[in-house]
Design goal:
alpha/beta, Rossmann fold, OB fold (Dihydrolipoamide Acetyltransferase, E2P), Helicase, Ruva Protein, domain 3, 3 domains, 7-stranded mixed β-sheet, two-stranded antiparallel sheet, 33% helix, elongated, binds adenosine-5'-diphosphate, binds magnesium ion
């Protein structure tokens, strides 16, 4: 048999606008290091964000919100991302875009509420009484249909469960047989059955079968230790939204206390440093005079505008037969792409020429 390797069709991720940001870049005392973790300057805001991270970690942030306030391109989104990175992936982070809120189908308040609930994470720790082990046998026992007629029904299921310590045979209610089928449980799988609810969870295939020929991706788990019948601690990270999906949506809100972090516009040399960092992250070479012109544009328009000129400028450079972006390339692309302020100005000057 011939086996060919298949190339993944997953899209390669484009370099997003904030990929150089790795965290808040604070020292152990919470003081901002002038250039660290991909961030430059904006020290007070970073330190304030560090306090928020500490508040969250010490569980004192409940019922509070923060507002990042400042002109465009001053790093509000970048620092929001840095906060998320400092908190790790167990704390839900759900960015949303303004346009998501506008829909004829769903109310704005509902969209916002759902996003709030997606952003609130819970760690549920439960001690459950379970039967756990590798399935050694699985036999549905049928009886004549009690109502009469010809069909047969499952009266109960006999299941054998094995652990490193021993084996147990259980007689189960037919309703559990349905959940066993739903989870596609077969002999050789490691499962647990919750004693109270009868819920079945398939954990994977027992690793004694790890060498069997299996085309499907399969997760192998070790034979459970201890008794078949035992108390098991189950930890789950979920969001309120997950719970809403699982149950009916609970009602009722809470007052939120707002904390405001102020963002100050960057000085020219900080912009230049950030732009240099962006160029490095995007693998773009740029000469000093071009960088300096970009920084000028940053001062006149926004940092975001000049950062966005980097990629087109590198393409222009290539077209002009250069590896490194020169001043002319920056000049050329800046005349092609307008920043938001200038385009708004043109729009208002020529108001009468547009459709209303
Ligand atoms: N202090 C900073 N250090 C490094 N990069 C920054 C900093 N502030 C902003 N940036 C980068 O500049 C660009 C614009 O910032 P952004 O966070 O989108 O601004 P805002 O959300 O305040 O409008 C982004 O690419 C961002 O990653
Ligand atoms: Mg932003």
């Amino acid at each position: 048999m011939k086996i060919e390797e298949v190339k993944s069709t997953a899209k390669t991720q484009r370099i997003s606008a904030h990929s150089h940001v790795k965290g808040l870049g604070l020292d152990e005392n919470g003081i901002a290091i002038s250039m660290a973790a991909g961030l430059v300057g904006q020290k007070e805001a970073r330190e304030a964000a560090g306090i928020v991270v500490d508040l969250i970690k010490s569980k004192k942030m409940a019922g509070r919100a923060i507002l990042l306030a400042g002109p465009p391109g001053t790093g509000k989104t970048a620092i929001a991302l840095a906060i998320a990175q400092e908190l790790g992936n167990k704390v839900p982070f759900c960015p949303m875009v303004g346009s998501e809120v506008y829909s004829t189908e769903i109310k704005k308040t509902e969209v916002l509420m759902e996003n709030f609930r997606r952003a609130i994470g819970l760690r549920i720790k439960e001690t459950k009484e379970v039967y756990e082990g590798e399935v050694t046998e699985l036999t549905p026992v049928e009886t004549e249909n009690p109502v009469g007629g010809y069909g047969k029904t499952v009266s109960h299921v006999i299941i054998g469960l094995k652990t490193a310590k021993g084996t147990k045979q259980l007689k189960l209610d037919p309703s559990i047989y349905e959940s066993l089928q739903k989870e596609k449980v077969e002999t050789g799988d490691v499962i647990y059955i919750e004693a109270n609810s009868g819920a079945v969870k398939r954990q994977g295939r027992s690793d004694t079968y790890a060498t069997e020929f299996d085309l499907e991706a399969e997760e192998y788990v070790p034979l459970p230790k201890g008794d078949v019948h035992k108390k098991k601690e189950v930890i789950q990270d979920v969001t309120l939204h997950d719970l809403d999906i699982a149950n009916a949506r609970p009602q009722g809100g809470q007052d939120i206390l707002l904390m405001i972090i102020r963002f100050i516009p960057y000085k020219r040399d900080q912009m230049e440093q950030i732009l240099r960092l962006r160029a490095q992250t995007e693998g773009i070479q740029i000469d000093e005079s071009a960088l300096s012109l970009l920084a000028d544009f940053g001062v006149r328009a926004t940092l975001r505008y000049s950062a966005q000129l980097l990629t087109p400028a590198s393409l222009t450079a290539k077209v002009n037969g250069r590896v490194t972006i020169a001043r002319e390339d920056v000049q050329e692309v800046s005349s092609l792409f307008l920043d938001a302020k200038s385009s708004a100005k043109i729009l208002s000057l020529n108001e009468d020429k547009y459709m209303k």
